[in-house]
Amino acid sequence: MMSHRARIRVATSALFIALVACMGCDAMIGRIAAGAADRQVNMPNRDILEDDAMNVFLCGTGSPLPDPKAASACTLIVAAGKIYVVDVGPGSQEVAQLAGFPTSGLAGIFLTHFHSDHIGELGEWAMQSWVNGRTGPLHVYGPEGVDQVMGGFRQAYRLDDAYRIAHHGLENLPRGGTEWISHTVPYAEGPGTIVLEEGGLVVTAFAVDHKPVEPAVGYRFDYKGRSVVVSGDTDRSSNLVANANGADLLIHEALLKSLIGQVSQALGEAGQPRLQRLSKDILDYHTSPSEAADAANAAGVKMLVFTHLVPPVPGPVREWLFMRDVDEGNVDVLLGEDGMQFRLPPNSEAIEID
Q1: Which of 20, 36, 193, 231 has the most CB atoms lying inside 10 A of its own CB?
Q2: In this structure, is residue 309 part of a structural domain?
Q3: Are the C-beta atoms of 77 and 59 separated by less than 8 Å?
Q4: Which own/partner contact pairs does 132-136 have at CB distance under 8 Å and 24+ positions apart?
Q5: pTM higher than 0.70
Q6: What residues have CB less than 8 Å from 202, skipping those under 6 apart?
Q7: For residues 224 and 54, is the Cβ–Cβ distance under 8 A?
């Protein structure tokens, strides 16, 4: 049997070890806290608003179908010292924040249409950019119906805004950042309509073909001799080709029609007529990779990047499936991924990819 003195020695040793471990834990926790603060202060893209180039970041290349490696539709564009976002699908805001973009500089959100995978994080983009330092109103652009969509999200976030102001104070969260302003963009075939001119940046909206979803638009961004076009969701569209003419970068949706067709047939054979119909229906209002490449060549764009990838194919076979039938022609074609970044220096033909 252990003596009383021995038990005291064992207890003392255990206490000493525990104290050392706690001191080590405290040091580790301190390092974690310091690292978190450093990431907030020294974000990877903290200086991007000062860049004279136009920058493009893919913050969502996925679709309504769950994909562990991709958020839903979102393209972020930085120009003239401000951030603009085309579509705000679920998960996209987190991708942009993790990449270190200063969302306090968010000046406008451009919605192409109102499917859920394109609007799902409108409230989070508004709230997070406000918390990160945006003090002025958030401008939300979209085709007819944008005021209804924006109003619904705005109403849903009113209580949250009030909670945060009451907790943190107006000196830290000014009420001006809770104001949202909607702007309805035209929907008509033919030359696009300029919907924003600011600091040398020109944004043009144009109609695309996502019938029976109407209205649906794409956007073109022109800045210092460089141009970026975002298709939104569309079938083959001659109007997109016309409005993308000569663009440096075309961010275009892509759906594997042959694969989805086979999935639909298999669902029917498995006795799932409802799912068969749902999968078959999406074939007639999206663009295949080869069709998107044809459009890019017809428009004379320099680089085509696939986004809104349907279906979410896992692993290395993804690139093979999306690229196997593509005739690149005179266009550089890339398969988009969340986190991919492009830099277009002013009055140049260079496209720098990170």
Answers
A1: 231
A2: yes
A3: no
A4: 132/102, 132/103, 132/104, 133/102, 133/104, 134/103, 134/104, 134/105, 134/106, 134/177, 135/174, 135/176, 135/177, 136/176, 136/177, 136/179
A5: yes
A6: 194, 196, 221, 222, 223
A7: yes
Do residues 184 and 294 share a domain? yes
Q: Is 281 a catalytic residue?
A: no
Does residue 210 sit within a domain? Answer: yes
Q: Which residues contact 61 (CB under 8 A, 6 or more apart)?
A: 70, 71, 73, 306, 307, 308, 309, 336, 337, 338, 340
Please report the sign of the dihedral spanned by the C-alpha atoms of residue 112, residue 338, residue 340, residue 104. positive
Both 135 and 16 in a single domain? no
What pLDDT does residue 322 have? 94
In this structure, the answer to whether residues 26 and 51 fall within a common structural domain is: no
Question: In which residue ranges of the chain is pLDDT below 70?
Answer: 1-23, 28-29, 32-43
- The SS3 assignment for 178 reads helix
Q: Are 107 and 83 in contact (CB under 8 A)?
A: yes
In a domain, 187, yes or no: yes
pLDDT in the model for residue 31: 72
Domain residue limits at 14 = 1-30
Instruction: Say yes or no: 13 and 78 in one domain.
Output: no
Peptide bond into 212 cis (omega under 30): yes
Contact 81, 105 (CB under 8 A): yes
Select which of 26, 38, 67, 117 is catalytic.
Answer: 117
Strands 352-353, 341-344: pairing is antiparallel
pLDDT at 314: 83
- The answer to whether 179 and 75 are in contact (CB under 8 A) is no
Say if residue 20 is in the same domain as residue 57: no
Q: How far is CA 221 from the centre of its chain?
A: 16
Under a CB-based contact definition with an 8 Å cutoff, are residues 62 and 73 in contact?
yes
Co-location of 26 and 150 in the same domain: no
Instruction: Assess if residue 40 is contained within a domain.
Output: no
CA angle 14, 16, 22 (to 5 degrees): 100
pLDDT at 316: 84
Amino acid at 45: N
Counting the structural domains of the chain, the total is 2
158 and 16 in one domain?
A: no
